[in-house]
Amino acid sequence: MHEILFPSPFGTPPSPELVARARLAPVPAGFTGRAGVLVFEDEAGVHAEHAFEPVSQALCGAGGEGRDWSTLRAAALWPGMSRDEVPERTLVDGRGVRFTVRDFLKAMFEPYPDLPEMQGGRELETRKAGWRMAVTDALTSPVVALVAARNEAAVRGRISGNARIIGLAEWWCGPTPAHEIRFDGTFYPPRAAAKWLYERLVEGLPAAPVPAIASEEDFETLPVLYFDDDIVVIDKPTRLASVPGVRETTSAKEILEKQFGPLRIVHRLDMDTSGVLLFARNLRAEKALHESFREGLAMKCYVARLEGVPEQMSGRIELPLALNRLDRPRQCVLSEAEGGKPAATDWELLRVETMPDGRRKALVSLWPETGRTHQLRVHCAHAAGIGLPIDGDSFYGSRGILAEEKTSRLCLHAAELTIPHPTTGIPVHFEAAEAFPKF
C-alpha cells in the first residue's frame, strides 16, 4: 500500500503549513501572475521550491486598454497552435520515463483521427489547435513546472529519488485580469488545462486521490417541498450535486429516485448552491417544463450573501459571459462580438449582517434574466458588476480554494421558483429560506 504523500492541487485546499511556506516566496517586485510552491522532504530535511508565471500586461497592466474587458479578443486569450508550432520539449514523469510534448499530444489525439475538410475536418482541426495551445501553455503553469523540475532533478541525481513531495499549491499575485476575477495572494487550483500534463508528470509518484465532496451517508434524506404525479421539488443542500458527474457520483437525483422512482432533469443548481430544485417524473412533464424554461416562463429568485456591503441599494448587471477555455468551468467577461453570451441580472439589497469578527456583509436578492453558467457569481464579483464576490465562493471569492473548508460554504441559495404546472398550466410557487452560517 502506497503512503499518501501529497494532495492533488486540483481538489484539495493547501494545508496551513503549505500556506505559511508560500507566504515566504521571493515574489519579484511588481510581479503579476501565478506563483507556485512545491515542498519536499529528503534525507537533508524539508525544502521549498518556487515557480512564477507572469501574465501579459495587456490583460491587467496599469491603465490603458488592458483593463477594459470590452477590448479583449478571444484569439488573443486562447490562440490556436499548428502541429509545427508545438515545441520539441522533453519531460520525465514520476517513474523516470521520458516523453516529448509532441508524443503526448499524439497519444491524446489518437481517438480523434483527422477527417476530410468537408466532413468535419476543419472543425476538428480547430479543436486540436486549441488543445495543442492548452497543453503547450500548461508547460509554464507553476505546479507543472515544479513537478517537471523535481522529476528531472531526481533522474539526474541532483535530489534523492526518495524525496517525498509534501505539498503543492498555486496562488495569484497582483491585480486581476480585465476579463477575470482574481485576488492578490489568494490560492486557486491550477488552471484546468494543466491537468492533463500534470497527471502524466505525477505518474509513479504516490499522491492522494481527489476525494468526492459528498457521499450518500452525508444526505440520507432530502427536504421535499412538494410532489405529485408530475414533479418533485426539494430544498437541495449545499455541496450536493444536482445530477451525477464524473467526480461526484452522489447526487440529489440518485437519492430521490430511491423514494420516487426514475426522475427527469429539468434544470440544475451548482453543487455548492442550495435551494429550490425541481425534477419531472415523466416524459410529458419534462417536455412541458423544458418549454417553460425556454420561453422564460420560469421565474427564479436567489439570495446571496456578499463579502461586503455594496454602495448602491439595487441595480441591473448586463455583462456577457464566456467559458474560460483554459480554465473550465470558470467563466469570464467577454464581448458578444468575441463570443460572449448576453447575460443580465437584477439585484436588490435585503439587509446587512454583522459577522462574529465584526465584518459587515450584505444579503441581496438576485433575479437572473438569463441562465448562464456561474452568471450570478461573476455578476456579483466582477468590477463591472456589483464588485463584491459571493461569500464563500471558491471560484471567484477572495479566499479562493480555502473556502472549500468545512466551516465555510458558498452563500448562494435558490430561494424561489415560480413555473406553470406541466399538467394544469397554472403557475405554482415554491420557496425555501436561506440558512447561511456566519463566518
Q: Tell me the quaternary state.
A: single chain
Helicity range: 10-25%
Which structural class is indicated by helix and strand composition? alpha+beta
Q: CA-to-CA gap between the ends?
A: 39 Å
What is the average of the pLDDT values?
91
Number of helices: 10
N to C succession of SSEs: HEEHHEEHHHEEHEEHEEHEEEEEEHEE
Q: What is the number of beta strands?
A: 18
* Biggest sheet record: 10 strands, mixed
* Contiguous runs where pLDDT drops below 50 for at least 5 residues: 62-66
**C-alpha geometry:** globular
Report Rg.
23 Å
Strand percent estimate: 15-25%
Please sum up the structure shown.
This protein has helices at residues 16-23, 57-60, 74-77, 101-109, 121-138, 142-155, 195-201, 252-260, 283-294, 375-381, and strands at residues 33-42, 45-54, 90-92, 98-100, 164-173, 187-188, 224-227, 231-236, 264-265, 274-280, 299-305, 314-318, 321-323, 331-333, 344-354, 360-368, 412-420, 427-431. By secondary structure, the protein is an alpha+beta fold. Residues 62-66 have low confidence and may be disordered.
Q: Care to describe what's here?
A:
With 439 residues, this protein is α+β, with helices and mostly antiparallel strands. The chain is 21% helix and 25% strand. The chain has ten helices and 18 strands. It has helices at residues 16-23, 57-60, 74-77, 101-109, 121-138, 142-155, 195-201, 252-260, 283-294, 375-381; strands at residues 33-42, 45-54, 90-92, 98-100, 164-173, 187-188, 224-227, 231-236, 264-265, 274-280, 299-305, 314-318, 321-323, 331-333, 344-354, 360-368, 412-420, 427-431. The strands form four sheets. Strands 7, 8, 9, 10, 11, 12, 15, 16, 17 and 18 form a ten-stranded mixed β-sheet that branches. It has a four-stranded antiparallel β-sheet with strand order 2-1-5-6. Strand 13 (321-323) and strand 14 (331-333) form a beta hairpin. The radius of gyration is 23 Å and the shape is globular. It starts with 15 loop residues before the first helix and ends in an 8-residue tail after the last strand. 36% of the residues are buried.
